[in-house]
Design a protein that fits this description.
By secondary structure, the chain is α/β, with parallel strands linked by helices. The chain contains 9 helices and 7 strands; from the N terminus they run βαβαβαβαβααβαααβ. It starts with 6 loop residues before the first strand and ends in a 7-residue tail after the last strand. Bound molecules: NADP nicotinamide-adenine-dinucleotide phosphate (NAP).
């Protein structure tokens, strides 16, 4: 129970990787604030975490929503000392056809959000002289992927931001790392066609999609005391896809 007594904030905890991370951190003893974009999603998180956490509504693409959310939790909880920026979207298109709206939405939700949520969380961690920021990026930030120029740019931006933040916050006992999954079975990858999935799997030595709980285990390691000397890193988890 290495996280006993600590509040952990997980964005996008209603399903997929974020839900698995919220459950894993709660099992490690943290009190988890998990977010969804709807009230129904938030209620379902509270129900799932059953006493070891609470669900909240948060739209990370909106500065007003981020500000309102932090005001709301300030009244009810200790400051989160573990922050997992997991919420993210894709809006794929080849670069030649990429609409400004597709570019802006993905950059705003996947990159600008990280600046907003990290900034709002840093003061509490600095005061406590202990903190863990874990940003969920993607193997696509390192590999590139046709049709995902907006997503690759956003995730690579998050990795650069995280290294700069790690340099700034290291002396305060705060680590900042990224976890970069390959292809993990969630709603995001369920959207791929069977043909796309088979083509992908041919490139994955493990021969399968990853499970959300496998990503969650890595995040929980980074959130614990044992990972205090790991900072400014991107840890890859992709069944061997990236080495090939
Ligand atoms: P998912 O199943 O599509 O779930 C996305 C989560 O993000 C949901 O909880 C959703 O909330 C939330 N969300 C979406 N837009 C939001 C917004 N504007 N504000 C706040 N929350 C928002 O996604 P996933 O596959 O678990 O992916 C989670 C993270 O891992 C993402 O950052 C993604 O880029 C990254 N990733 C995924 C894979 C993969 O193979 N699945 C691979 C590499 C990286 P609602 O339920 O309310 O919509």
């Amino acid at each position: 129970m290495s996280l006993a007594g600590k509040v952990a904030l997980v964005t996008g905890a209603s399903r997929g990787i974020g839900a698995a991370i919220a459950d894993h951190l709660a099992a490690a003893g943290a009190y988890v604030l998990g977010t969804a974009t709807t009230a129904a999603g938030a209620a379902q998180i509270s129900q799932r975490l059953a006493g070891s956490g609470t669900g909240y509504v948060l739209d990370v693409s909106s500065e007003a929503s981020v500000n309102a959310f932090f005001e709301q939790i300030k009244a009810a909880h200790e400051a989160p000392l573990v922050l997992v920026n997991n919420a993210g979207i894709t809006q794929d298109n080849i670069a030649l056809r990429m609409k400004a709206e597709e570019w802006d939405d993905v950059i705003n939700t996947n990159l600008n959000s990280i600046y907003r949520v990290c900034k709002a969380s840093m003061r509490g961690m600095t005061k406590a002289r202990w903190g863990r920021i874990i940003n969920i990026t993607s193997v696509v930030a390192s590999m590139g992927n046709a049709g995902q120029s907006n997503y690759a740019a956003a995730k690579a931006g998050v990795e650069g931001y995280s290294r700069a933040l790690a340099s700034e916050l290291g002396s305060r006992g705060i680590t900042v790392n990224c976890v970069a999954p390959g292809f993990i079975q969630t709603d995001m990858t369920d959207a791929l066609s069977e043909e796309q999935k088979q083509a992908l799997l041919r490139r994955v030595p493990a021969g399968r999609l990853g499970a959300a709980r496998e990503v969650a285990a890595l995040v929980t390691f980074l959130a614990g005391d044992d990972a205090g000397y790991v900072t400014g890193e991107t840890l890859h988890i992709n069944g061997g896809l990236y080495m090939n």
